[in-house]
Design a protein that fits this description.
Distance between the termini of chain B: 43 Å
Number of helices of chain B: 22
Strand content of chain B: under 5%
Oligomer: heterodimer
Number of strands of chain B: 4
Number of strands of chain A: 10
CATH topology of the largest domain in chain B: ABC transporter involved in vitamin B12 uptake, BtuC
Helix content of chain B: 55-70%
Low-confidence stretches of chain A: none
Shape of chain B: globular
Distance between the termini of chain A: 41 Å
Strand order of the largest sheet of chain A: 6-7-8-3-9-10
Chain lengths: 238, 609
């Protein structure tokens, strides 16, 4: 069986500066794969390339058996790849409910959409309580919940989350991570980019460590969590 | 009651001496009766003679009957009296002030004070000295002062202020003190949350909407038919403060809830009211202004799709009006058109709309790949390219298509179903002149544009526009094709401007390149169109219509200002952006954004109708 997402020798450059220098990895259906690494390692660039916001320099991206290389961003969604971008990018002046509805922009089944909105409210009860409130008035953590809920509205085969814990309080971060675990248990395939290595590794099936544009270490989440070099570099232990 | 005047003494009981009264105020117990008396006396004063000679326009010499500016003072006085009586909780009047009467009373008092004093100064300046005032004028001055004094003495909760930091620079301390004064001043105009509305049967609600629309027609007709500068300025003063007072009282919010509930009735009613305008006129003098306002406001509404909904700053929009006008003029049978064809109007208007749409797509396709400021600059450039291009297609610099700077002239009047638009008709005893004929035609176009705006704003594409405006990256990530969505907005906006242009060409007889500039003393031009959208309220239907009407009417009426017009216009925009960035008629969403940090805005008017 081929993997849901196969990335082979992907290279991405901003002008002359190569941000991603030939990385390869796979995401199997139903698993959580995480990319961890420091600032500037190329994690976000990888995700943005996968969702078509940046054109790659070289390499292959196969999603569900199809090449994504020439697919523009707005069509990637219809293939089943949802991207919850870094910095959340919610629509601040729209209500929470309108944000969620826009997540389902390409869908036509209004019954299914309403059902999925209800699902998002079940997953994040705070959103349900404030459904008529402008999204910009939510706290950072709540906005992250909304961004995730919105990404799920397109019924993706693969959900890409870019730094969901960025700038959140420890409690909020735990909540978000618990939600990701919940989504994994429900069978959602997730590609997670995180700086918080501890949290990401403990819930990932597979993990890759990125450093200045390359993958330097790969393994299962548990393996890397107990790997000495990872513990030193990312978990702050001597 | 007195302790609430000063929160610092209220919070520190140790120094609970009664705070000194502010200068120029009465004891709070006397405030309300004084306000009522002032209002009533103002009304009475409007019936007295204010000057001895009819040399001042409006004939203010008659006892027992108000004339000219006296009517405006009468309305201000009546507003103050009604709001003051309502503040006593008198049965049958409390509905006037669902958000509390005090702030409304203050503004109504300002309306009377400003209008009356403006009138007296105008009389004295024009006739040469205060000696030209009759005793009635002094009664009016005193009456408005009494009203103002009464409302000034009303108690209010003063916002807490902090003393300036002594370490700060002198200018910093000055700014801080100024800020404190301003926040205390604003505190006087605070309103309470609206009382819940009484449930009315549907027909009563519709009746209220109809009455409000009729009142709107009266106010608008009054403004448009003011015959001399003083009266128009007085009208602006009274209307400005008056609408402020009504808004503070909470009535505008009440009505907008009703219009939002009965949108189709409101739309039909508003157009019926607009269509009634020519019937209030005995000649064609003001129908000219009416039809030009409609053209201007309609084009502004089209621009609102591009700017307000899709968030694309287009500084060359008037070019699309020009394309529509030129295209329709070229096929209108004008003797100066090189094509020499005469299409029926429905074809000519389609030619205008389609030509504009094609032009919109041609300009949009390369430029819409740019974002923000770059798009604004490029559209500004294309707007000028259109004008200069038309100027050069004169047979010497280029092929002879547009006749260059002479334009296409002698565009024949329309004739639809045997109805000659150039002739004066008599309908049921009313005289309907040439401009009134075109007024009706343009009203039809306005209706089309309003309906298109409303339908598209609420459709899938409308949601995509708003998403693009809010965050283009996120919108793309949702599966919205950003480029195509923006191009549709651009092309639709252009098409609607083209429709209006086709009518405009016939109204003005002549189209010349100079009519379609970026900035110009006469609307419509790109700068004024954008200002009408911003002034009125982005993303709303009524916003650009109101903004367009004001921006056309003010320069048309105040001819003496024409030299300073762009200056005054710029100043007004700066002030507006500082104090009411969401525009006169706010979109709920915009209001959320602009007033995030302050307390909830006093009046939340809803978008639409």
């Amino acid at each position: 069986m081929t993997a849901l997402l196969e990335v082979e020798d992907l290279r991405v450059a901003y002008g002359k500066i190569e941000a991603v220098k030939g990385i390869s990895f796979k995401v199997e259906e139903g698993e959580v794969v995480t990319l961890i690494g420091t600032n500037g390692a190329g994690k976000t660039t990888t995700l943005r390339t996968l969702s078509g916001l940046i054109k790659p320099l070289a390499g292959q991206i196969k999603f569900n058996g199809k090449s994504l290389r020439r697919v523009p961003a707005h069509q990637v969604v219809s293939l089943g790849l949802a991207h919850s971008p870094e910095g959340r990018h919610i629509f601040p002046r729209m209500t929470i409910e309108d944000n969620l509805r826009l997540g389902a922009f390409l869908r036509k089944d209004s019954d299914g959409i309403n059902k999925d909105i209800q699902r998002a409210y079940d997953l994040f009860p705070i959103l349900g309580e404030r459904r008529k409130q402008a999204a910009g008035t939510l706290s950072g953590g709540e906005q992250q919940m909304l961004a995730m809920g919105r990404a799920l509205m397109s019924q993706p085969k693969l959900l890409m989350l870019d730094e969901p814990s960025m700038g959140l309080s420890p409690i909020m971060m735990q909540k978000i991570m618990a939600t990701i675990t919940e989504l994994r248990e429900q069978g959602t395939t997730i590609l997670l980019v995180e700086q918080n290595a501890q949290a990401a590794l403990s819930l990932a099936n597979h993990a890759h460590v990125m450093e200045i544009g390359s993958i330097v270490l790969s393994g299962t989440g548990q393996d890397l969590l107990h790997d000495d070099s990872v513990r030193k570099a990312y978990l702050g232990e001597d | 009651m007195t302790t609430t005047q000063n929160t610092t003494t209220a919070t520190t009981p140790a120094q609970a001496t009664p705070s000194p009264r502010r200068p120029l105020t009465l004891p709070t117990t006397a405030a309300r009766p004084t306000a009522v008396a002032g209002g009533a006396l103002t009304v009475v004063s409007a019936f007295l003679a204010w000057t001895w000679t009819a040399a001042f326009p409006g004939d203010l010499t008659v006892y027992g009957y108000p004339g000219g500016l006296q009517w405006l003072v009468l309305v201000s006085g009546a507003l103050l009296t009604l709001f003051s009586l309502s503040s006593y909780g008198i049965k049958g009047l409390t509905w006037l002030t669902p958000q509390g009467a005090d702030a409304a009373m203050r503004l109504a008092a300002y309306a009377g004070l400003a209008t009356a004093w403006f009138t007296m100064i105008a009389i004295s300046v024009q006739l040469g000295g205060f000696a030209n005032l009759e005793p009635g004028a002094y009664v009016a001055l005193v009456a408005t002062l009494i009203g103002w004094l009464g409302t000034r003495s009303l108690p209010y909760e003063r916002p807490e202020t902090t003393p300036a930091d002594p370490e700060d620079s002198a200018f910093g301390r000055f700014k801080h003190t100024l800020g404190n004064h301003w926040s205390v001043y604003k505190g006087a105009f605070a309103t309470s949350p609206a009382r819940p509305a009484k449930k009315l049967p549907s027909y009563a609600e519709i009746l209220i909407v109809v009455v409000v629309l009729a009142l709107g027609l009266v106010v608008f007709t009054y403004g448009i038919t003011t015959e001399y500068d003083e009266l128009f300025i007085g009208f602006l003063i009274t209307a400005g403060f008056g609408f402020g007072a009504i808004g503070k009282a909470g009535l505008i919010q009440r009505v907008s809830t009703l219009t939002a509930r009965h949108r189709n009735v409101t739309l039909a009613g508003a157009f019926a009211a607009a269509a009634a305008f020519p019937f209030t006129q005995s000649d064609d003098q003001y129908a000219t202004i009416g039809v030009n306002i409609l053209i201007f406001a309609t084009v502004a509404l089209g621009l609102n799709i591009v700017v307000g909904l899709a968030g694309l700053l287009d500084l060359g929009y008037v070019a699309f009006l020009g394309v529509g006008a030129y295209a329709a003029a070229l096929v209108s049978g004008s003797p100066t058109s090189p094509f020499g064809i005469h299409l029926p109007f429905w074809q000519a208007i389609l030619v205008g709309a389609v030509a504009s749409m094609i032009f919109g797509v041609l300009i949009g396709a390369p430029t819409l790949r740019l974002r923000g400021d770059y798009l604004a600059i490029v559209t500004l450039g294309f707007g000028e390219i259109f004008r200069i291009g038309v100027l050069n297609l004169d047979g010497t610099s280029g092929p002879d298509v547009t006749n260059g700077s002479n334009g296409i002239s002698s565009i024949p009047n329309l004739n639809l179903f045997g109805f000659d638009f150039g002739a004066t008709h008599s309908i049921a005893g009313f005289t309907i002149g040439r401009f009134a004929n075109y007024f009706f035609l343009m009203l039809l176009v306005t209706l089309i544009v309003v309906v298109v705006f409303r339908r598209s704003a609420e459709s899938r594409i409308g949601r995509a526009w708003v998403a693009i405006r809010e965050d283009e990256t996120a919108a793309e990530a949702m599966g919205i094709n950003g480029f195509r969505t923006k191009l549709i907005a651009f092309a639709l906006g252009a098409t609607l401007a083209g429709l209006a242009g086709a009518v405009q060409a016939h109204v003005t007889y002549t189209v010349t390149p100079e009519q379609y500039q970026f900035a110009h003393a006469v609307p419509p031009n790109s700068a004024f169109l954008l200002a009408a959208v911003v002034l009125g309220g982005m993303g709303t239907i009524s916003g650009p219509l109101v903004g367009g009407a004001l921006l056309f009417l003010i320069p048309a009426k105040l001819q003496f200002m024409s030299d300073y017009q762009l200056f005054a216009f710029g100043l007004a925009l700066v002030l507006l952006m500082r104090f009411r960035p969401e525009g006169l008629i706010a979109n709920r969403r915009q209001q959320l954004e602009f007033h995030e940090k302050e307390e909830a805005p006093a009046t939340l008017t809803k978008a639409g109708a």
